[in-house]
Known about the structure:
The chain is 25% helix and 27% strand. The protein has twelve helices and 18 strands. The chain has helices at 45-49, 54-60, 69-74, 105-117, 124-135, 147-158, 164-170, 229-234, 239-243, 264-268, 297-304, 371-380; strands at 12-17, 25-30, 33-36, 64-68, 87-89, 96-101, 175-180, 191-194, 201-202, 205-211, 217-225, 227-228, 249-257, 271-277, 283-289, 315-318, 343-348, 352-360. The strands form three sheets. Strands 1, 2, 3, 4, 5, 6, 7, 10, 11, 13 and 16 form an eleven-stranded mixed sheet that branches. Strand 14 (271-277) and strand 15 (283-289) form a beta hairpin. Helix 4 (105-117) runs antiparallel to helix 7. The longest helix is centred in the N-terminal third of the chain and has 13 residues, at 105-117.
Amino acid sequence: MSSATVPDKGILLGRAKLPGCNYPRVITVRGGTVFDITSKSAPTVRDIAELENPAAYVAQAEGVEIGDINTIAENSWSETGNSGAPSLVSPIDLQAVKASGVTFVASMLERVIEEQAKGDKAKADSLRSDVLNLIGADLSQIVPGSPAAMKVKEALIARGAWSQYLEVGIGPDAEIFTKGQPMSTVGYGSDVGLHPISSWNNPEPEIVLVVSSAGRIVGATLGNDVNLRDVEGRSALLLGKAKDNNASGAVGPLIRLFDGEFTIETVKNAELSMRVEGTDGFVLDGASNMAKISRTPESLVEATIGRHHQYPDGLVLYLGTMFAPVKDRDGPGKGFTHKMNDVVSISTPTLGTLSNRVRLSTECAAWTYGTSHLLRDLAKADLL
Length: 384
């Protein structure tokens, strides 16, 4: 992976923790230098996302120089960071944190395998070949909800192979779920958390859209939708337990706002690369090509926000991944699962690199700073 921590161009927006300040400051990066652009007119990232032209606002905003972005990013690692120096935090604040699932064929097939294996990773390899042989058709060419998709659905039902994951993968309705609560995500360098009960889990490299309360997509960033394969594999009704835990959602390093050069079309053609590096010497490389997504990003946003559901503070939406690791880690047939202190790095040239260390959720820093704390601190600072 060759992408820098942040892209060398574009209009960037995020947040940083500064020494002596109780609340995160709103920042941008210009020419490799970080500037604090927190203001009373737009004291939160949510407020900027609600503007008519967020990119123009950030590009023109007056700011106070904080320091070099690479130095600040390096100081953002939970294990080694110095609290007396600036550090990055999640670039979002008041937005709802939503996610879409089973949006790529490869991911869909892995969810089917999880369901069939009932969370037992030892059965996954044989089930994988069985399911692929059974399906036969190239589902990547099928538009979800189309007549062709319905024919495949009927054939699979007749053969006793239908699954709830195939339903949301090629059926008319997308899977949209709540990944976490506002203010719960972690940023670049922070530890990401796995629930202690899990013994089969993996990272999920994704692009995350930033959406205003009006449903307008204003920018994008990177995300790790940490997944517990054994928990969800036992029952899809355990999705909340599999997805929403302390430090289980990473976002960052910064939001890149849409302008004339960076657009939704850039997102649609992005290719994410991912590397997992373990202290045991294990290295796993993977990729997720957005051109292979089975539902358009716009359609996923429309399934999330509209007349049927409003989000007054806007939202961010994980778009899903085609990455499903099958590389054996501890021996033939044992598949992949995380070990403590793995470092996961997700990259794409237009958005930079999001890196995090893997820990148990019970060992990550507790989530103690919520929406009420931010609003009180902003009020005390006369920013509201």
